[in-house]
Structure formats: C-alpha cells, structure tokens
Amino acid sequence: MSGCTDATAESHPMNGGDGTYSYTHNSNFQKSATNVASSMINRAVIDKLELSKLFSFTSSNNTFRIADLGCSIGPNTFIAMQNILEAVQQKYLHSQHQNSSSQMLEFQVFFNDHETNDFNTLFSSLPAKRQYFIAAVPGSFHGRLFPNSSLHFVHSSLALHWLSTIPKELLDRTSPAWNRRRIHYTSAPDEVYKAYQYQFAKDMIKFLDARARELVVGGLMVLIMPAVPNSVPLSHMPLGVVYDLLGCALMDMTREGWISEAQVDSFNLPVYVVSPKEMRELVDGNGCFSIQMMELIKPMSSVHDGQITARAITMHLRAAMEGIITKHFGGDIIDELFNRFYMKIEELSDQLQPRSKEGTQLFLVLERK
C-alpha cells in the first residue's frame, strides 16, 4: 500500500541487511529508548485512550489500526508494536464496556519508512507468533500515507529528527547561513541554526497536518525524538559533541587529501534536535491535538551496566550515517573516517559518560481532538 505522500522528501535509510555494520546489530541505543518508553506508553493507553470513542463494542468492525512511522528494519519496531498491542488489549479487557456480546479486538500494524528502506530484512525477521496483521506503507511521513480517519494509534520513535531536505541556504556561498567547514549547526553561526530550525518547523507542520487527517477523533499519537532541554544548545549535549567530532574527522581528512574541503562544505547532516518548548508551540499551532503527556526521558538509564563505549557510539553512528556519507563522499573513505571518529570519541569518553545520563529524548503523547 502506498499513499499520497511527499515525493520530494529525501531518503536516509539505515544500513540494511544483517552484517557487522547493519542497523539490526547496532540499534541498542534505540532499543533503550523503546524500553524506557514502554511503561510510559502503557500508562498513556490506560489513562488516555478512550476505546468507547473509537468503537461500538457490539459492532463486528473491531480492528485496531496502529502505524509505526520510520520503522527502519527491526527489531525495535516489533518490540514497540507488541508493547502497544498488549497495553490496548489490557485496556479493552478491563473496559467497563466489555460484556459477553462484545467482539474481541483484532490488530493491524502498518510499518512505514521510505521506499529505500530494507523492507526485506524487516519482514524476514517478523515475530513468528505475532498477534497482528501486517502491511508495509512505503513513503515519507512528511506527507499523507493513509486514508482519512483510518488509524487509532500512531507511533514514531527516533525518526522525526530527520529533515525532509537540507535548507538551501547552507549551500549558498552568498548566504550568511553558508555552513563552511562544518557538517551541522552545532558550533555554527546562528544563521545556520535558524535555517535548520525553520526547516524542522516546516516538516513538523506537514507531519501534524497529515496525521490530523489520518487519526480518528480520540486516537493517540506517541512521538519519541532526540531533544535538548529548553534554552540548552545542542553543542552542550552528547549528540552535539558526536556530530562535531564527525565533522572534525572529515576536516582532518581534507588536510591529508582524502577529500576536498568543497565536499565538506556541501555536506550537511539533515538532522534537527528539538526542545520541548518548540514542540509545544508546533502542536498548539496545528490545533488538532491535545498534549496528554510531555516529558524529557533518560534513555541510557536502561543500558546494560550503564556504560556507553566509544565502540558502541561509533558502530551506532555508522549504522545510521554510512548511507548518507557514502552517497556524498563515496565508499572509499568510510573505514578511515569511522576509525578516526572512534579515536576522537575514545579520548572524550570519560567526559561524555556523565552527560549521557541526562534527559536527551522527548516523550510526547498527543490525542486527536
């Protein structure tokens, strides 16, 4: 199934397959976010989801439809979908409307990502004993993907920070936002930051408009995304340090002739990290959703032994960024680049450990009015 989505949105797939540098084997940070959010999702479903608004309990049409937007290739999407399903089942079974004539809920899950996503790996690793029907929905979530009022629950974890496109001003030598010798807005002039911020706002306006049409009244949307506390610059957070070090590694390679400085000048990571205040303003501006929960969470609190190693950070970044870097610079530099990045992050690992325990992800529950 495909939809009326935005064909102009750029695609940035994670590393597919089942290899050493695949997303499948290097997404433990995302898994930590899923684990931390699971109890919060359960609480949101129990406290906020009013099934009586969504169904007639004596109707034969009792299919609960869930969409995971930016699902990537697993396994984290399966964990999240099962968590949601179990929470809704619990809510349904304990509902005061439940009676002997009610039909049991059936579940349909839509897995969405760009057309270039490795859906083959995703579906070859589906849980054998899943309790839901499945469908793939390829396309950008910055546009429409589903018919009007067809979804009851939307979930998106660590996907919305990807921009649909890089702001054109960053590549314009005559613009104050020309991002020379940098690959992100961390540590860049304010004009660069504002260009990123404006593009993110445009993307979120389109995202919220699309979901407002697709969700039924009373339906819930859970969004989990990288975040910074209000008034804290990204350069003060671990993710900002990671992006700066990747840029430094690329600039080191220009001085040794691996790549040209012009190649670095024309490369920018299409990622924006939002604050709670910004998200509240965007949701309020849309007007179709009420904010039921909004919290900064600490995803690393569930990481085994509490240690974030330089190797883990490097492997995670490579799984997420290798595709977009290869597309721009070619594949010959990848091993060298991430070896250099690893050495830089290793030098700072002691400084990053305390920061990694801070609230760095936004957990947001919206209800369709």
Automatic annotation (TrEMBL):
One of its GO terms (molecular function) is metal ion binding. It comes from Trema orientale (Charcoal tree). GO terms for biological process: methylation. The keyword Lyase does not apply. SUPFAM superfamilies: S-adenosyl-L-methionine-dependent methyltransferases (SSF53335). This is SAM dependent carboxyl methyltransferase. PANTHER family: S-ADENOSYL-L-METHIONINE:CARBOXYL METHYLTRANSFERASE FAMILY PROTEIN (PTHR31009). The lineage of its organism: Eukaryota, Viridiplantae, Streptophyta, Embryophyta, Tracheophyta. Pfam families: Methyltransf_7 (PF03492). Keywords: Magnesium, Metal-binding, Methyltransferase, Transferase. The keyword Metal-binding applies.
